[in-house]
Amino acid sequence: MSDRAPNAIITDQDRAMQAAIRRVFPRANHRFCLWHIMSKVPHKLGSYSQYENFKGALLNCVYDSLTCDEFETRWQQVVEKYNLQENAWLCQLYGERHQWVPAYVKGIFWAGMSTTQRSESMNAFFDGYVGPKTPLKKFVGDYDNALMRMVENERLADFGSYNKMFPLITLHSIERQLQASYTNEKFKEVQEEFRGFMMCLPSLLKCEGAISTYEVIDRVRVSGDFIKEVKYCVYFNDTECEVQCTCRLFEFRGIMCRHALIVLTLVKDVKELPSKYILDRWRKDLKRKYTFVKSSYDDLSGNPKAQKYDDLCNDFSEVAFLASDYNETYMTMKACIRKLKEELLCNGLRSESSLSSAPSLHIPGAYSICNEATDGRYQKCNKLRSPLVAKSKGKPSSTRKQSIVEKVVRKLKLTKVKK
Ligand SMILES: [Zn+2]
Q1: Bigger pLDDT: 242 or 293?
Q2: Average pLDDT of the residues in 156-183
Q3: Rg (CA), the chain
Q4: What is the predicted pLDDT for the residue at 392?
Q5: Which residue range(s) make up the domain with 277?
Q6: What distance in angstroms lies between residue 27's CA and the mean position of ligand 1's atoms?
Q7: What is the average pLDDT across 81-96?
Q8: What's the CA-to-centroid distance between 52 and ligand 1, angstroms?
Q9: Are residues 197 and 310 in the same domain?
Q10: Does a structural domain hold residue 2?
Q11: Residue 401 lies in a domain
């Protein structure tokens, strides 16, 4: 995890886990799995005489409350109506409402994990490979296999996302933009939102400066022919091209909701979604870091980027070995790495803003990083140029100035040889 705490953790209502997470990851958003909570309702309240009616009211209160205030009002009404004010389980649930009720947790990004999804679904990673009785020694090999399958699946999905795209269902350029950027899986989800246009009716509520507020009536099919009307508010900032909807789908799942999309496309005639609304994690043109992790059965020859990654890791490991002997060399190396990282990040950001130029990165002897826009608009692709191309520019390597890293490594090597 590169020394970083997770932003979000979903567990069942386990007290020990709750205490541990609070202590170890105090800033992480910890949510209880709603599926687990709801599956306990029959066990906790099934013997109650008005159980069926109560359950319907409880589900409405939990799933249909758009705001925290609405949830609190509805909850009070439900427990009073069914005379359940003294029920210890319900009291505890209410006390922890900010950790499980959709109205409270939907403003936080949960990487696509919906409130109704079972938290264990992520365990599918190990399905068929690792079981509760797998001995530790076997676990290492099985983990390797599970990882290999994941990388392979990702490659297949990437291949599929580029070679077989879902056809567009509207004429809006934003849909075309998302088709070009998203993986097929994510695009399928966002197309559902475009399909929902037919059920939405936007109207302007007010304008205050650059901010316009729209009401979007969404007709949701509840069951059979029963249609329910739900009202959402969409705020649009003209100067920043910022949009926010009270359904909080973007904050929660990282994709634009139909309400925001209808305001952007049909009302404001926005032709292109700002890049901040297309999360990197859903893009098909980015290589995930874990695809570079080498497993014992992996053959990297068909993956030049993974080969380079592997090669760099070997070099870094050598540098780390040399620099970790003394505090001074350790500190120097830390400073060098920090500087290198800043340069790489800064370069990456510059590359994104100016797609045509190939900025020079001050790591002498290293490959030059350029950014080539394949279709000029949406595709982002960092390519490492071959050292032969990079060498044709600037001073020849024999006379050029050495970088700090090179100097430090050379000095460290000389010190070792002298010893
Ligand atoms: Zn919305």
Answers
A1: 242
A2: 87
A3: 27
A4: 40
A5: 128-296
A6: 27
A7: 93
A8: 31
A9: no
A10: no
A11: yes
- Number of domains the chain contains: 3
Burial of 130 (0-12, 13-18, 19+ CB in 10 A): middle
Residues 114 and 217 in one domain: no
Q: Which of 94, 122, 150 marks a domain boundary?
A: 122
Task: Please check the confidence at residue 350 and state whether its pLDDT lies above 60.
Answer: no
CA of 208 to the centre of ligand 1 (A): 20
Q: Ligand 1 centre and the CA of 13: distance in Å?
A: 29
Expressed in angstroms and rounded, the spacing between residue 194 Cα and the centre of ligand 1 is 12
Indicate whether 352 and 249 sit together in one domain: no
Q: Which of 5-14, 206-215, 225-234 has the highest mean pLDDT?
A: 206-215
pLDDT of residue 253: 84
Residues 139 and 285 in one domain: yes
Mean local confidence (pLDDT), 377-393: 36
pTM of the model: 0.57
159 and 200 share one domain: yes
Q: Which DSSP letter does residue 355 get? A: S
From 15, 52, 40, select the one nearest 90 (Cα to Cα): 40
| pLDDT at position 56 over 80 | yes
DSSP code of 324?
A: T
What average pLDDT does the segment 309-322 reach? 83
Q: How far is the CA of 263 from the centre of ligand 1 (A)?
A: 10
- Ligand 1 centre to CA of 243 (Å) is 10
Q: Is residue 245 part of a domain?
A: yes
Looking at residues 228-248, what average pLDDT do you find? 91
Residue 272 falls within a domain, yes or no?
Answer: yes
Rounded mean pLDDT, 237-260: 90
Distance 245 CA to ligand 1 centre (A): 5
Residues 110 and 134 in one domain: no
Compute, in angstroms, the gap from residue 372 CA to the centroid of ligand 1. 35
Residues with CB under 5 A from ligand 1 (ion): 232, 245, 247, 257, 259
pLDDT for residue 363 = 33
Contacts of 380 by beta carbon, 8 Å cutoff, 6+ apart: 283, 285, 286, 352, 371, 373
Q: Quick one: 25 and 137 in the same domain? A: no
CA-based nearest residue to 332, from 274, 396, 407, 393 = 407
- On whether both 363 and 379 belong to a single domain, the answer is yes
pLDDT at position 272 is: 93
Q: Is 112 left (phi over 0), alpha (psi -120 to 50) or beta?
A: left
Confidence (pLDDT) at 260: 95
How far is the C-alpha of 299 from the C-alpha of 305, rounded, in Å? Answer: 12
- Ligand 1: centre distance to CA 193 (Å): 9
